[in-house]
């Protein structure tokens, strides 16, 4: 269901959930949002639970500072207290824990979008419906192409370096090695982008020129229904939590 | 009717260069004519193609003298992008210049830019895929999941969809396995379609072109004419200019009384006396080198790229001192992964590797460079100054010793990368990944001699290549990879005679196959 959901409406819904997470300072709301996003990833997008757990790691690390300050040291950072004060936090729940779950909830809502959306379809939808300039759209797609190629280039550079130094290839580059790889990789990316720009121009892409678009899946009533249901669920959770709090 | 493309005393100079990259050149491409542009590395062939629609000097900084007419109109009368309806490019590195996210996006890109009605686009894409031999099921495949060779074929389908009456192609088949290269050439050089193609190896395209134009090292037109006439009357001049000649032309240069250039090679060989057998053997096969101890062994190895899945299973092979081994197979067969495992850079996922350490000379020689000049790269090997001077001299790098390695020609870069690994005793095993890519005839011949010299010194050399004639000329032994396994391990010569086995792996017999047949019959 999520994978066939039109990317623009899905983006709207995910943004709505993230904005709600940023303005509602309630632990139950953040936990509900986090649980809903995690369930959607596992049940609908069929992402293996272990991968979902791994996905949580960077977000959890980001919010871990608030969590440890709050739970282990029974104290609150100035930032957390200020957020709670400004956003109407309740005194019974530690603000650091709310912030920790907020990071997780926003992260999982982003993951729902990222893992169920075809990036090419999203860029095409942006060009078609939101007038994203085609040179910018195709540059975005080119950037997505470069990422795996950069990885391959980096591996080759690392192997060449290992040969020169006469030692086996390390699984993970040491910090010093990573720094010295930055300039050759940047040079590669610049050369590659220059060649791509030439190719685009040779094939007729130029700013301001009217172009047609390959027919894309239209926004159907199912997409509108999903958006409505998602927004309604968000409104319902907010209302229930607000009622419970008062 | 005006010429499809005409250069009138055109000279092109890159910004900051002291001399013209090419020209002055005057040449024309008639409507429906197919021209092969030959020339040594650095003769300015690619620059000449880029200038056809004004990409040079409009987008590539430089200056132009003379006039270029495209379909009878001065090229500067439109912007380069506007000429996409008239002239289509297939770039040398097409695999790295794809625009779309999926195969369908990529093929639709140029027609979309031309504003072709949206409802016509799906049909146009499907038709182009069919013509290029791409299964319709690939339409939704992401470009990043395709191998380099597959991307090149997708680039061809995109060019066909563009529908421009003039095609300019820069080494379109250089990175393709022979069978895919032949299909590519057939589609690019279809009759009735004006095309100018740059190729270092003219053999596969000679039958499909109407005219050859050869540029000399000075960037001017040296020879022009029908392909057979050019090869028959100017073979020696072409070879002197560093241009690779087809085998038949090379043999005819040496045996003019016996080889008739108008006949197919097999028929021409019928007139060669058996006394010439040794000479013919020397012309197409390497001089035997006695092999020594085993240097490296893979035993039941499962090979996988770093962080990737296993691509080759249960590989058992060894490499001996003095041996040159050709690693052959279609695009994506796992040749580079095998090279990394054989060298010891990547440990096998299962099985084991034993033996001396190995080094890989990567297809992109720039990966090996880390210093500001050629001299300092060589000095990094920690040799005495007189040895550094001798190495520079031996590898013909003295004149460019002060240059940054990235500014060298492709042949010079290849020599420097090989010198960095060969001029130290640290690596008894050397593996060369597509060493002939981008090299002209003279540089390739010099490389073949270097490889044999390294083998004579007692190194074990493995060679990954799509160039079957090059493999035959330097390697005594070959392994054929296909479908995740080693399908053949034996004498290179025997594999090259086995056309069924080769075609099963998307490869074709070398140009020299008739000579091998003749040698078998004569001896």
Polypeptide structure, described:
The complex is a heterodimer of chains A (246) and B (523). Chain A has 246 residues and is mostly helical. Chain A folds into two domains: 7-120 and 218-237, no CATH class; 134-202, no CATH class. Chain A is built from nine helices and no strands. The mean pLDDT of chain A is 84. Chain B is of the alpha/beta class. Chain B folds into four domains: 1-86 and 166-245, P-loop containing nucleotide triphosphate hydrolases (Rossmann fold), CATH 3.40.50.300; 94-163, no CATH class; 256-281, no CATH class; 294-522, Rossmann fold (3-Layer(aba) Sandwich). Chain B is built from 19 helices and 19 strands. A six-stranded mixed beta sheet of chain B has the order 6-7-8-3-9-10, with helices on both faces. Chain B has a six-stranded mixed beta sheet with strand order 15-16-17-13-18-19, sandwiched between helices. Chain B has a four-stranded antiparallel beta sheet with strand order 2-1-4-5. In chain B, helix 15 (441-456) links the parallel strand 16 and strand 17 (460-464). In chain B, helix 3 (103-113) crosses helix 4, helix 7 (227-240) packs across helix 8 (247-254) and helix 10 (277-284) packs antiparallel against helix 19 (513-522). The termini of chain B are far apart. The relative contact order of chain B is 0.10. Chains A and B meet through helix 6, helix 7 and helix 8 of A and helix 3 and helix 4 of B.
Summarize the structure.
The complex is a heterodimer of chains A (246) and B (523). With 246 residues, chain A is mainly α. Chain A has helices at 7-23, 27-44, 49-71, 78-86, 95-116, 119-129, 134-165, 175-202, 221-245.
